[in-house]
Amino acid sequence: MDGSSEWGLARSLIHAEDPARFATWIATLTRQERRGRRLYLTAPSRFHAHYVATHLNALCLSAVRQVDPDIDAVIVTEPT
After folding, report:
1. pLDDT score recorded for residue 33
2. Opening angle at CA 26, ends 12 and 42, nearest 5
3. Distinct helix (H) and strand (E) counts, the chain
4. Pairing relation of β-strands 73-77 and 30-35?
5. Cβ contact 49:77 at 8 Å
6. Of the four listed, 17, 26, 47, 57, which is most buried by Cβ atoms within 10 Å?
7. How many domains does the chain have?
8. What residues contact residue 19 under an 8 Å CB cut-off, 6+ apart?
9. Averaged pLDDT score across all residues of the chain
10. Using CA atoms, how far apart are residues 73 and 1, in angstroms rounded to an integer?
């Protein structure tokens, strides 16, 4: 896993906590950019983006804030 970005480090934390959930929902999320205090991730499909945003956003934000407390929001988008 990429440990060089805040998302790479956060992914490692989520994987260590719950490998099955990581494999199903988190592994395919890719970091797009950081704008100010927001981290933008892209999911592989609209359904995937909606599910993560609805059910796992708190998990993603918590993990990201553990490695970078300046981030206030994780925004999951669908592919373009």
Report:
1. 96
2. 115
3. 4, 3
4. unpaired
5. yes
6. 26
7. 1
8. none
9. 95
10. 22
What's this model's pTM, rounded to 2 decimal places? 0.91
Tell me whether residue 39 is in a domain.
yes
Q: Is residue 17 one of the residues assigned to a domain?
A: yes
Burial bucket for residue 21 (CB in 10 Å: 0-12, 13-18, 19+): middle
| Two structure tokens written together for 22 | 């990581």
Asked whether residue 1 is domain-assigned, the answer is: no
Range of the domain at 27: 6-77
Question: Which single residue is written with the structure tokens 């925004």?
Answer: 75
Is the pLDDT assigned to residue 2 strictly greater than 80?
no
User: Starting from the edge strand earliest in sequence, which strands make up the sheet with 38-42, in order?
Assistant: 30-35, 38-42, 73-77
Q: Evaluate whether residue 65 is within a structural domain.
A: yes
Q: What is the CATH number of the domain that holds 51?
A: 3.30.300.180
